[in-house]
Amino acid sequence: MVNTTQPTADLSPAPTVKKIQDERLREVSFVTKIMRRPELGALAGLILVAIFFASTADPSMFTLAGIMNILSPAAQLGILAIAAALLMIGGEFDLSIGSMVAFTGLIFGAFITLSGWALLPAIAATLVIAAVLGGLNGQLVIRTRLPSFIVTLAFLFILRGLSLVGLKWATGGSTQMRGIGDQAGEGLIRELFSGNALEGAFAWLAANDLIGKFPNGTPTVTGVPVSIVWFAGFALLATWILLRTRAGNWIFAAGGDPNAARNSGVPVDRVKTALFMLTAAAAAVVAILTVLDAGSTDARRGFQKEFEAIIAAVIGGCLLTGGYGSAIGAFFGAIIFGMVSIGLTYTRFDSDWFQVFLGAMLLLAVLFNNFIRRKVTGER
Amino acid sequence: MDQDVPLIEIRNLVKHFGSVIALSGVSLNVNRGEVMCLLGDNGAGKSTLIKTLAGVHKPTSGDFLVEGKPVSFASPRDALDAGIATVYQDLAMIPLMSVTRNFFMGREPVKGIWPFRRVDFDYCDEVTREEMHRIGIDVRDPHQAVGTLSGGERQCVAIARAVYFGAKVLILDEPTSALGVAQTSMVLKYIHQVRQKGLGVIFITHNVRHAYAVGDRFTVLNRGKTLGTYAKSEIQIDELQNLMAGGKELQAVSAELGGMV
Amino acid sequence: MKSIVTGLAAAAALTLASVAPVAAQQNSRIIVVSHGQANDPFWSVVKNGVSAAGQDMKVQVDYRAPETFDMVAMGQLIDAAVNQKPAGLIVSIPDASALGPSIQKAVAAGIPVISMNSGSDVSKKLGALLHVGQDEVVAGRIAGAKLKEMGGKVGLCVNQEVGNVSLDLRCKGFTEGFGGKVTVLPVSNDPADIRAKVKAAVASDASVDTILALGAGTAGEPSVAAVKEAGKTGAIRVATFDMSAGFLKSVAAGEAVFAIDQQQYLQGYLPVVFLANYAKFGLMPGGDVASGPNLITKEKAAQVVDLSAKGIR
C-alpha cells in the first residue's frame, strides 16, 4: 500500500526544487559508489588469492577442469554461506547448519532406501522437515531471548547426535548409509539435483576439440556440476531479495537495530524465524545434492561447515554484529574458501602447512574487507 | 474540522505497574500549530507518559482524547494510525543503512506483481532527496549511511520521516539533549517549520533553555504529576527551572555556587 | 597503512621466491590422497613412509588429505590430483560410493592407481592396480582369537572414528574371533574424553575383562590409564590396533597385552615404490600386499618402542 500523504503546507514548487537538488548535491564519484559495495573487499580478496595461486600452483589449477574442481566445494559451502550471510545480516547465527546437513542427509537417505519413496516426495518431505526444525530454532531464540549462538550450538550437538543414532538404527549398526544413488532412480528431478548440467554442450565442445578429452574420447569436464548452478542461482536470488525487496530492507533493519525496526513497524520476529528456516532449508539442499552425487551419507557430513559458512560470510563483508553485508560477498567468500583449500593441493607446499595457510589467507581477506568497509560507512 | 479542539488531550492520567505508581495524575493538551514543552527532570515519569501516548502502555485510569474523541490504543500501530508519531531518543534510525532505507523503513512502497514485487527505490530516493533539501541538509546523497550524518541531521531526518508519513502530532523525546549548540539550533529551527505546517508538537526535555526557545506553552512534570501548564507570556525561564527541580533545593545550591544553576 | 602494505608485499615476495624453483621441475610425480589428517599420529607414520620412499626412489611425492573426515572434500581432492596428471595416484578408500566416481575418473584419465589402508574389497572393482593394507576383519579375528586364548570372556571395542567402515570391520572381526560378549564403545578422538568414557564403562560393568582399542595413541593409551585408575590392571587385558611409544611401554611393563602393528609405514612406502617402478619400467606386482597384522607382544615390544618414537612403526 503506497502512502502518498503529503505534508499540509508546501514550500517550493516541485520543478525548481529538483533543479536545485542536482546542483547542490556533490557528485558522488563512480569509484566511491563501487567502494561502497560490501562485496568489494571479497572480490579484491579473491583476486589476491588467485594471483597467489597463479604464481605458486600447478597451471592445471586454472584449466576448465581445475576451475570446476575449485567451484565444487565452493558451491556446497556457498549455498550454506549465502543463507548464513542473510541470517547474519538479520542479526543472528545458526551454528547447527553443519549438523543439519548430516541429519537431513540421513532423513533423505532413509526416505529413499527404507521407505522406498520416489525422489520428489522424498525431497519435498526433507525440505519441510528442515524448515520446521529451522523454525523451531528461530522461535526458541525469539521467545527465550537467549543468544542464537547458544541455542543453535545446542542443536549442533543434538542434530549431530541424532544423525549418528539415526544412521545406526537405519542401517542396522553402520555409520554409513549406502546405495541411495541407486534407489533414487533417474528422471527430471534427478537431473535437477545431481550430476552435471549442459552435458550436451560439453560433449559437443569436446568433439570439436575446444576442450580437453580423456584418451577414450569423453571430455575431461562432462558438464557444469549441478551444485554450481544452484550456488549461482541462490546467490542471485538472495541478492535480489536483499537489495530490491521489502523483505530485504526488513532483514537489514532487524539486524541493524531490532528495537528501532520494531518501532517502525517491521515484523522482526517473523523475519528472523523465516531466516532460520532458510538456513535449515539450505542445509537440506546441500545434503540432497551431496547425497545424490556421492550415493551415500555418513555421520560426519557437514562437519564444521557452520564455521566455514560464517567465515565465508564474514570474508564477504558481513558484520558479525548484524545489519550489514552482502550475499554476493558470501558468494565470493565461498569461492575464496574453495580456492584456498583445493588450491593448496595444487602447490608443492607440504600439507602440514595447509591449516596455517588457510588461516592466514582468511585473516588477510577479513582485515582487508574491514579496512574498506570502515572507510566507506564512516565508522571510526 | 473544528480548529478549537485540541489534537491530544489527557486528563488525570494514571499508570500503575503492579505496586509502582509511575504516573499519578497527568493533564495536558496540544493544539494544532503549537509546540507544547513537557519539562521534567529524570525520574519524573516522562518515558512512561510518552509510551502511554504512543500506544505502548494502556493507562490505568484517566481520559485520553484525540481530536475530541476518547481513544484506547492496543498497540503502537494504532497510535500511528491515529496520527500520533513518536520520535524516541534512539531515533529509530539504523546507522548502517542508507537514509532512504531508514526513511521508508516499515513503509516501503512496492511495485510489480508477486513474486516479482520489489521496492520502488526510485520513488523513495526522490522523496528522500526532497525532504533532505527541505530540512536544509546540504550536499548529501540519500544513499549515504545514516551513520555519516551528524546527530542534529539524524534528528531532523527522523522528524521529517514522521511528518511525511502523515503525523498530526509529533512527540519528540529529548531531541536536543545529546547535541551541540549548532546542531541544536538546526533541530529547533526545523521544529519551528513543522509547527508552521500546522502539526502539534509535544517537545519533551529537561533543558529549559531549549524549551523556552521554541515552545508556546510549558507543562511541568514532577514525580508522576503535572504541576500546571503555562503560556510563554505567563512565566519566566528561571521560574520554570525552579518548578522543574522542585523549587527550594535548587535555589539553595544556586546561592552556594554563586550563580544560576 | 603504508607499512602494512609494504610488509605484506615483502612477505608475498619471499613466499614466491622460495616456491618458484620448485614449479620448474616436472619429473615423475606421485600424489597420495588419504583420509588421514596430518595431525593424526597414525597417519603421520604413513606420511613418513611416503616421504622416505620418495627419497629412496628419487620421485616427487605429495601427501594430501582433507582437514576432517569429509568424504565429499576427499573426492574433490582426488579430482584436483587427477587434473595435475601425476605419474601415479595412491588413495585410501573409506567410502567407496562417495569416492568411486573420482577414482574411476583417474583410471579413465590413464593414471595408475594403487589403494592402501582401506577399501580392499572395492579396490579392484574401481580400477586400482592393487591394494596395500591390512584386512581389518582378518586382523580383528586374529586379535580376538588371541585375547580369547588369554582367557577373555567379556570385551569392549573402543571405536574413535565412527563412520570409518574399516574400524567398524575391526570390531566386527574382533567379535567373531573372540566368541564372548562384545560391546562397541563409541568415543571421539580426544584422549581425555576416551579415558573418562572407558573408566565409566568399566565402572558400570564389572564383568568386563578385555578391552580392544582401535588406535594406540588416541584410544589405547587412555584405555590403559583408565584401567589403572580403576585399579584393574592385570584383571582387564588391554590390547590395541596400531601402536604408539606409550602403549608399547605399557606392553613392555605388563600393563597391556599386545599391540597390532598394521605396519602402516609400509602402506605409505610400498605403493610409492610400486608406482615409481611402474612409471620407469612398467613393473607391477601381481596381487594385493598385506602389510599386517603383526602382533607385538612383550617380547618384541622393546625394539619396536624405539622405532615408534621415530614415527616409523
Helices and strands in order:
The complex is a heterotrimer of chains A (380), B (261) and C (313).
Chain A: H1 14-24, H2 30-36, H3 40-56, H4 64-89, H5 97-113, H6 119-144, H7 148-171, E1 176-177, H8 180-184, H9 188-193, E2 196-197, H10 199-207, E3 224-225, H11 226-244, H12 246-256, H13 258-263, H14 268-294, E4 297-298, H15 305-315, H16 327-343, H17 354-377
Helix pairs in contact in A: 3-16, 3-17, 4-11, 4-12, 4-14, 4-15, 4-16, 5-6, 5-7, 5-14, 6-7, 6-14, 11-12, 11-16, 12-14, 15-16
Chain B: E1 8-17, E2 20-30, E3 35-39, H1 46-53, E4 61-66, E5 69-70, H2 76-81, E6 84-87, H3 99-103, E7 110-111, E8 118-119, H4 121-135, H5 151-164, E9 169-173, H6 181-197, E10 200-205, H7 208-214, E11 217-222, E12 225-231, H8 237-245, H9 248-257
Parallel strand pairs in B: 3-10, 3-11, 6-9, 9-10
Antiparallel strand pairs in B: 1-2, 1-4, 4-5, 7-8, 11-12
Helix pairs in contact in B: 5-6
Chain C: H1 2-24, E1 29-33, H2 41-57, E2 60-64, H3 71-83, E3 88-91, H4 96-108, E4 113-116, H5 123-126, E5 131-133, H6 136-149, E6 154-159, H7 165-178, E7 181-186, H8 191-204, E8 210-213, H9 216-229, E9 237-241, H10 245-253, E10 258-261, H11 264-281, E11 289-290, E12 294-296, H12 298-309
Parallel strand pairs in C: 1-2, 1-3, 3-4, 4-5, 5-11, 6-7, 6-8, 8-9, 9-10
Antiparallel strand pairs in C: 10-12
Helix pairs in contact in C: 2-11, 3-4, 6-7, 8-9, 9-10, 10-12
Structure description:
The complex is a heterotrimer of chains A (380), B (261) and C (313). With 380 residues, chain A is mostly helical. Chain A contains 17 helices and 4 strands. Chain A has a two-stranded antiparallel sheet with strand order 1-4. In chain A, strands 2-3 form a two-stranded antiparallel ribbon. Chain B is 35% helix and 25% strand. Chain B has helices spanning 46-53, 76-81, 99-103, 121-135, 151-164, 181-197, 208-214, 237-245, 248-257, and strands at 8-17, 20-30, 35-39, 61-66, 69-70, 84-87, 110-111, 118-119, 169-173, 200-205, 217-222, 225-231. The longest helix of chain B is centred in the last third of the chain and has 17 residues, at 181-197. The mean pLDDT of chain B is 84. Helices cover 53% and strands 16% of the residues of chain C. Chain C has 12 helices and 12 strands. Chain C has helices spanning 2-24, 41-57, 71-83, 96-108, 123-126, 136-149, 165-178, 191-204, 216-229, 245-253, 264-281, 298-309, and strands at 29-33, 60-64, 88-91, 113-116, 131-133, 154-159, 181-186, 210-213, 237-241, 258-261, 289-290, 294-296. Chain C is of the alpha/beta class and 313 residues long. Chains in contact: A-B, A-C. At the A-C interface, helix 3, helix 4, helix 14 and helix 17 of A face helix 1, strand 2, helix 3 and helix 4 of C.
